[in-house]
From TrEMBL:
Its main location: mitochondrion. One of its GO terms (biological process) is mitochondrial translational elongation. It comes from Aegilops tauschii subsp. strangulata. This is Elongation factor Ts, mitochondrial. Belongs to the EF-Ts family. Keywords: Elongation factor, Mitochondrion, Protein biosynthesis, Transit peptide.
Length: 467
């Protein structure tokens, strides 16, 4: 490649040439007494083509076409091309960057910025004495080692490569300090993302013989929900909540504040050490680049002779899923076998996930819900134009259908719709020789009750279409 020096006057061009001779990459194409215009802008030692001679006054005439031509960086032309076309035709797009460089050099020459001045500037800045510009952050670490450090830190943290490299550079390629720096950056990044809607995620269940805990960990996309670090954190939170002090309640719903300040010990290749739940969630949010939050949790317990059963739907691995059903079954006789209760309890938990019951029995249906449904059914019946007595019978008949839809004991069993859950429990009682009852049940689904903002919904739809 070649650098062509131009000036608005011959004297200005001569000053420019004198200034450029101080640069390490500047090698004139011959004796300064004989040649003037083309200079190699490449590796030292390259041989430029011979070009136009100076005028007798050591300057080209002002009228020469080269004074009106622009500076060019072009492929090496044949000598015949130079003689026939001294302007060296080249594209407008390649001309602009070199024009800017030469314009700046001309201004320096006009202010008397000579090669001696440049040498002084070189010695006071971060340049090697052999004339090669060096980058401060790579002066001590070889390029191959830099790539290895970037790879290691990326595997440790799952952070974006851009952030990984920035942290390593700022920490002088110390991987431990860079990892700490990434954690600090992650806190800031997670805080910025905290206002975004997180309606995806996973439910995690942990249980023993008497208790079961389900927690909901949310993120923004189902892609992050498949991340192994995210899944590990969800499982760890459920196990930690199960090991916490027993609240002494059969049904214990808890908010994020119940767990956030508790200490959790993590053992994952990319997430390890002892920290608080809140810090662990923040660190995972920094890794995956999304808003991650612990939304809620439930603990279900049984105090009598019984079992706690659970079922997870859309399960990527044991203990994780998108919809969860939990139920407690209790037998009056303490000598009754629990194996049959566990078997039936698991099938009823699956039924809960599929049928979405709201109440355990008709007696537990709230008065407000019952009155609201009765008003709706009465309005529908009155539109038929039938007498009032017939309307009341229609309302009572439709209420029975409503109970079959929302009351667990009245629902048709999804495994066998010829029977209902109440009949299933009666058959189980006969099998174990003791009356079996349902203590409590819970149904949870990821993101239920969370409404996405319109702009976020549109963004997700666009991403889905692109995929």
């Amino acid at each position: 490649m070649f650098l062509v020096c131009v000036g608005d006057t011959p004297s200005r061009a001569s000053s420019l040439i004198g200034a450029l001779q101080g640069f390490p990459f500047f090698h004139p194409s011959g004796s300064s007494k004989e040649k003037v215009f083309f200079f190699p802008f490449s590796a030292p030692g390259s041989t430029p083509y011979e070009t136009l001679p100076r005028a007798p006054s050591s300057r080209l005439p002002v009228s020469h076409p080269l004074w009106r031509s622009a500076a060019a960086v072009e492929r090496r032309p044949a000598p015949a091309d130079l003689q026939s076309n001294p302007r060296m035709a080249w594209g407008q797009g390649a001309r602009r960057p070199i024009l800017g460089l030469l314009s700046r050099a001309q201004r320096q020459a006009a202010r008397g910025y000579t090669s001696a001045t440049f040498e002084t500037h070189l010695s006071s800045n971060h340049f090697a004495q052999n004339g090669m510009i060096r980058r401060r952050f790579s002066s001590e670490v070889p390029a191959s080692e830099q790539m290895n450090l970037i790879k290691q830190l990326r595997e440790r943290t799952c952070a974006p490569i851009k952030d990984v490299k920035a942290s390593l550079v700022s920490c002088n390629w110390d991987i431990e300090d860079a990892q700490k720096d990434l954690r600090k950056r992650g806190v800031i990044s997670a805080a910025k993302k905290s206002s975004r809607t997180a309606a995806e995620g996973l439910l995690a269940i942990a249980q023993d013989e008497k208790r079961a805990v389900v927690v909901e960990l949310n993120c923004e996309t189902d892609f992050v929900a498949r991340n192994d670090v995210f899944q590990y954190l969800a499982s760890s939170l459920a196990k930690m909540a199960l090991s916490a002090q027993d609240p002494g309640k059969l049904v214990f719903p808890f908010a994020p504040a119940y767990l956030e300040n508790m200490s959790i010990n993590l053992d994952h290749p990319k997430l390890s050490g002892e920290t608080t739940v809140q810090n662990a969630v923040t660190e995972v949010a920094a890794m995956v680049g999304e808003n991650v939050k612990l939304r809620r949790g439930f603990m279900l317990s049984t105090t009598g002779h019984g079992v706690v059963s659970s079922y997870l739907h859309t399960c990527p691995q044991p203990g994780l899923g998108r919809i969860a059903g939990l139920i407690t079954l209790e037998a009056e006789d303490s000598s009754a076998s629990l194996d049959a209760l566990k078997r039936v309890g698991s099938s009823i938990a699956m039924h809960i996930v599929a049928a979405k019951p709201l109440f355990l029995s008709k007696e537990l249906v709230s008065a407000a819900a019952l009155e609201n449904e009765r008003d709706v059914l009465r309005t529908q019946a009155e539109s038929s134009g039938k007498p009032q007595m017939a309307i009341e019978k229609m309302v009572e008949g439709r209420l029975r259908k409503y109970f079959e839809d929302v009351v667990l004991l009245e629902q048709k069993y999804v495994v066998n719709d010829s029977t209902n859950i109440k009949t299933l429990l009666n058959d189980l009682s006969k099998e174990v020789g003791s009356k079996v009852t349902i203590g409590n049940f819970i149904r949870m689904e990821v993101g239920e009750g969370i409404e996405s903002r319109p702009e976020e919904t549109a963004k997700k739809e666009a991403m889905a279409c692109a995929a």
